[in-house]
Each structure stands twice: as C-alpha cells, then as structure tokens.
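cron nightly-structures :: item 1 of 1
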Amino acid sequence: MSGNKPPQSVADAANKGLELRRTFNRGGTSVGVARARDLKNRRNLSDDTVKRMKSYFARHKVDKRAKNWGDEDNPSAGYIAWLLWGGDEGRDWVDGLQID
C-alpha cells in the first residue's frame, strides 16, 4: 500500500456527497458509499483503488450534462454519486498521481 492519502478537499467533497445522499435518498451505489467513507476519513488508498477512481471519473464525466447537476436544492443522482467519489477535487487528485 502506498501513501495515497486523499487531501482534505477530496474528503470534504465525499462528505458532502454522503450528506446529500442521506437528504435526498438517491445517488451512488454501495461501492460509491464505501469509497466516500474512505475518502471522508482520509484513509490511504491502494494503487488499485486509485486506478478504479480514475476509471470511474472517465466513465461518468458525461453525467455532468444531466439536469440538476450541481443543484444543491434538487441534485441529480449522478452529481451525488460524483461527489461520493471525491468530486472534481477527487478527479484532479487522482489524475495528478503517478500510478502505473
């Protein structure tokens, strides 16, 4: 296990995703919730987990086109899920890591 500790901004985005999911009862899967908990608690992530995060963001960037993306009063399920994985901060963080 390498030292892939999520920055505070990623932890904050994941926590926001968890809060929105509780409030609106939608968004994300059990895997996304587990990822959010790891990010929120700033647990060191394995290289494989970082690769899965990169893959998630690559697959789901199209979700940003959805209605209610970023709407705090009525967020789309995709927006909540994106936050569970660390949001834009998480995407930028994993994109900057050198993982083979």
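cron nightly-structures :: done
The longest helix spans residues 8-24.
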